[in-house]
Write a structure and sequence with these properties.
Layout lengths: L1 H13 L28 H9 L3 H33 L7 E2 L3 E5 L3 E9 L20 E8 L6 E7 H8 L4 E9 L5 E8 L16 E5 L3 E5 L4 E9 L6 E10 L3 H28 L2
Parallel strand pairs: 3-6
Antiparallel strand pairs: 1-11, 2-11, 3-10, 4-9, 4-11, 5-8, 5-10, 6-7
Helix pairs in contact: 3-5
Length: about 280
């Protein structure tokens, strides 16, 4: 008897026939076309239909998995930027090097060829035409190691700084490496000259400058151009002996980090919900 029932159920699933008159039924028929008897779907067939995965559920599962991968990347990236902003910056939000001593018997220490040129990379930003200063601020802090001398820190365009130091003994920084621990390694190339420079404070071509006794801090929002950073004694005398700290701040760093982290959290929630409904069904 059990074998007979099983064979009947398989017959119902594979070839739908009317259970009263035996006429063949259409797959979606609700009544027999011959005798009008209502068509009932067998319990085994119903369970099999419910057990399968629909196309929508498959899409939800795949999309949910992709959303989780995206969420992971955004959360890690955003968290790293937020950690960098809170752990490696000073009170002003600058990432700085360790203090290092720069000393020479010439009239100046110069960092040349700071070429800032964005070209047309920002041409397609609509009405907003950003400059490099919108994305980074440079800081240079220094003090003289000779208590009888005051310090001068200046930034000038190359076209102005070159004539000022063209016939003056000065040292160009040819290597300025910062290790992961913040230690600075500096190497110089001497440029020879025969004249003594005028006091740097008497010149008007500096795009940014600081001078005086004690620690002087210069903050500069760069614009496009080719620049020199010049370190001197305030009176323009020879034998420059300074302690210097350099740093940079990216104002948008915490905003970018927070946006990535929030985006990752949203993607995580969406991915979890998609996978939940993909497994359970809508």
């Amino acid at each position: 008897m059990d074998t007979l029932v099983s064979l009947q159920l398989e017959r119902d699933e594979e070839m739908p026939y009317c259970q009263k008159c035996g006429a063949k039924l259409e797959d979606d028929a609700k009544y027999c076309a011959s005798c009008g008897t209502p068509v009932y779907v067998s319990e085994t067939r119903v369970r099999r239909e419910k057990g399968g995965l629909s196309a929508l559920r498959i899409v939800l599962l795949v999309t949910g998995g992709i959303s989780l991968l995206i969420a992971f990347g955004l959360l890690v990236g955003g968290g790293a930027l937020l950690w960098l902003n809170t752990s490696l910056t000073d009170s002003g939000g600058f990432i700085t090097t360790k203090s290092s001593q720069l000393a020479t018997d010439s009239y100046a220490i110069v960092l040349q060829h700071i070429d800032i040129d964005w070209g047309d990379s920002m041409a397609g930003w609509g009405l907003w035409r950003p400059s490099p200063g919108d994305f980074v601020t440079i800081k240079i802090s220094g003090s003289s190691n000779d208590p009888t001398r005051d310090i001068f820190i200046g930034i000038a365009r190359e076209a102005d700084a070159l004539p000022y130091l063209s016939n003056v003994d000065y040292d160009e920084v040819t290597r300025f490496d910062v290790s992961t621990s913040g230690v600075v390694t500096v190497e110089y190339t001497r440029h020879r000259g025969r004249a003594a420079p005028s006091s740097p404070t008497s010149e008007t071509f500096w795009v940014a400058s600081k001078h005086g006794s004690g620690t002087q801090t210069l903050e500069w929002n760069p614009e496009a151009g080719n620049y020199w950073i010049v370190l001197m004694n305030e009176d323009g005398s020879a034998s420059v002996d300074l302690t210097v700290v350099a740093g940079a701040k990216v104002p948008l760093l915490p905003t970018i980090g927070l946006a990535l982290f929030v985006g990752g959290a949203v993607a995580l929630v969406i991915g979890v919900l998609m996978i939940y409904f993909g497994v359970r069904g809508l």
